[in-house]
Amino acid sequence: MILEVILENFMSYEFGRIPLKPGLNLICGPNGAGKSSILLGISVALGQAYTERGRRLSDLIRWGEKLARVSLIIDNSPKGRRRPYPKIHSNTIKISRYLRSDGSYWFEVNGKTKTKSEVQEILRSLGFKPDNMLIIMHQNMVEEFAVVPPKEKLRIFEDAIGLTHYRERINDIKNRLRKILKEEESVHRLLERAKTTLDFWRSEYEKLELRRKFERELNELKIEHAWAKVCRKEALIDSIEDKIRELEERISSMKMRIKRINLECSNLTGKINELTMQRKTLLLNLIEKSREAGRIEVINKLTGKIGRENIVKLFGSTSIIDLEEIHSKLAEIQVKINDLDFTIENLYEKYIESRVRLELLQFKLDSAKAELIELKRDLSRGLNELNMLISEAEALGPRPGKVGEPAEILDKIRMVELRLEYIGEVSEDVEQMYLAYSKTFEELSERIRILEQNRALLLNELEERVKLWRKVVSEVLSQINKIYGDILNEIGATGYVRLINAEDVDEAGLEILIGFRGNAPVVLDGYSQSGGERTTAVMAFLLAAQSFIKSPFRAVDEFDIHMDPRNREIISKLLVSSFSEGSNVQCIAITPSPIIPQIKNANIIVVQNVGGKSIVRSVNP
Question: What pLDDT digit, counting tens, does each position of 573-607 carry?
Fold first, then answer.
């Protein structure tokens, strides 16, 4: 624990001693009084990187002074049988940091000059982690943590609760894997070079045998190629003969079809002529009946004028004929003529179709005959060429049982000829060199096999370590989640924390979700919540995580910034209850707001600025 902070010529402090107690140390006072300077002074003494990034150290020296000093008195009294830092045998450790106006600085531990790394080693041994946002939150860091990306949030969280070693163990495996992969790649390159050299000596060693083998193979391929050409020519002749037979069958079939169509045309012509004669007879009958109808119409008109008796006298009794009967017969004849016209037209269309088919078949027949003549010429030429090819092949060797395609065989012949071309003299040292490189190649291959086995083991180990990391982080978050939910419930909000992208350690992150006034929880960021809501969410998470944080010292500046009075009161009470007086941890909370009357069991420190100097005093609650 930090027992006391001493500030000399530091910012607004000319000289200030700030006693700290276990549990909660609540620093309050108006804005500009110098509250945050106390935490900044502690951070400077602890060598926190934040203080050195944010401003020049020389700017922290009180105006008009050339040297400032910040000191921390840390409890090192024995706890059981050993001291917190056993390398120093005193009950307290005084760490001082001196700042010069020229920008230089140095550290002292119990009056002895130390390097920054030596001081940091002492602080690490005591459990201090000043560079973690969840352990020391300066001004604006409460809101800043809200917008930190999920990946960074998770790493800050792991560091704060002491789970970093799980990730370090994973990274250790990854580093070992990278070394093995690098070695594997290097051995693979050596193996490739050894293989290339080995292949060369193997080819030299096998040259003589290969030459004889290739010569035998070349001779066999030439025989096969000659008979392959014979086979191809025989297949071509068989194809021509098949085409001739097919074409002759087609010609025969076309002749029969032409004969049938000619017969169809003849029958159609006879039917058309016969029906045409019938139409002429009906047409003559129609003309005759039409004349008769005309004569009857004339007689009927006269009958109305001169009377029926006179008509009979003039034309006889047979002249009195019913005109409707005549018209009925005329209509009947006209229907028959129409039927004949329809039938004759249909027969004529069939006749035209038959003639077209006949002409087309005749054209195809003429073409087929010409093609047949040409095929017979090709067959004659092919038979002559086949006889020549058989003679050439028999001169090379007997016909093989099975032959391939001539082009494929020719490619093989060229390949064998190329191989023969490249075979040269064999060195006397070929066998010795070949055996030496064979041994080297086997040794490198065995090394590759061992490396691959080690890689597989490391991959399994990596998987197990990732599972363990995921399990531990998930279990801690599960416990924090419950506390976080209970805290939010007290302020009338809902929310939870969750691990995202848990399958990938490098991409995994931590998300804080919160919802106010009955709204569904959403991810905490810089846009979805107001300033007070962000502060409330971060403080609720920070309080929920307190029992898991390993550092004995924690601090938060302006923990209640932007909060409404109700949330500020609830968070303040929870803050007090989280750090009882007998607690084995120490927390500094800084606020510019008035102290809530109900706060008890806290070391209250009031800071005021009087005449440009910060004055500190403790107040009993």
Answer: 888 888 865 568 899 999 888 776 666 778 889 99
Which residues does 499 contact at the CB level (< 8 Å), separation at least 6?
154, 470, 473, 474, 477, 508, 509, 510
Within 8 A by CB and 6+ apart from 92, the residues are 3, 73, 74, 75, 76, 77
Greatest mean pLDDT among 106-115, 218-227, 287-296: 106-115
CB atoms inside a 10 Å sphere around CB 146:
22
CA-CA distance, 127 to 84, in Å (whole number)? 9
Q: Hey, what amino acid is at 344?
A: I
Element (H, E) at 618: strand 613-619
CA angle 261, 265, 266 (to 5 degrees): 115
What is the rounded CA–CA span in Å between residue 496 and residue 474?
Answer: 13
Phi-psi region of 435 (alpha: psi -120 to 50; beta: other; left: phi over 0): alpha
SS3 of 312, please? helix
Amino acid occupying residue 24: L
Closest CA to 454 of 214, 181, 199: 181
Amino acid code (one letter) for 582:
G
Distance CA 155, CA 473 (A): 11
- Greatest Cα pair distance, the chain, in angstroms, is 176
Compute the distance between CA of residue 94 and CA of residue 76 in angstroms, rounded to an integer.
10
Four-CA torsion 95, 96, 97, 99, nearest 10 degrees: 180
Per residue in 64-100, pLDDT (tens digit) is 899 999 999 999 998 888 898 999 999 999 999 999 9
In whole angstroms, what is the distance from residue 407 CA to residue 596 CA?
100
The secondary structure of residue 82, as a DSSP letter, is B
Residue 232's identity, in one-letter code, is R
